[in-house]
Design a protein that fits this description.
Length: 139
């Protein structure tokens, strides 16, 4: 029985040692550079071209963050609502995001320029919350 334990222990040590070394990489690591935009036009141009970019915009209703990615997606997040908004509205919208996709050259600028339009190709908690509010605004 002692022979089996020794053999088993040797096999375990051999397996562990074979997986402990990491392969060497001769290639250089590439990192994605995200352009920081200061204007909506800058962000819309970069996002439409499926380039990585970000924008934080101060709107009448609050602060909104946009991030675009090389796979032609954009994430829109309501960072903070204005001080005049109710606590219920804050609970419904603040911190919520939606991810939207578009074809290269086909970003709907309404996604960036308006609070509720341009979200036909979006999914996420922010879209769900906006869809709850829109019928209330129409009534």
């Amino acid at each position: 029985m002692t022979g089996w334990i020794g053999l088993f222990a040797t096999m375990i040590v051999a397996m562990l040692l074979s997986g402990c070394t990491s392969p060497t990489r001769n290639e250089t690591q590439t990192s994605v550079t995200i352009s920081q935009c200061d204007t909506k036009d800058c962000f819309i141009s970069a996002a439409s071209a499926c380039s990585a970019a970000s924008l934080t915009a101060k709107e009448d209703y609050g602060t909104v963050s946009f991030v675009s990615y090389a796979n032609c997606t954009v994430t829109k997040t309501i960072v903070k609502l204005g001080d005049n908004e109710t606590q219920q509205m804050r609970a419904l919208l603040e911190g919520k995001s939606m991810t939207c996709w578009h074809d290269e050259g086909g970003l709907d600028s309404d996604l960036v320029n308006t609070p509720i339009f341009g979200m036909e190709n979006c999914t996420g908690a922010l879209r769900d919350s906006i869809e709850l509010l829109v019928p209330l605004a129409i009534d």
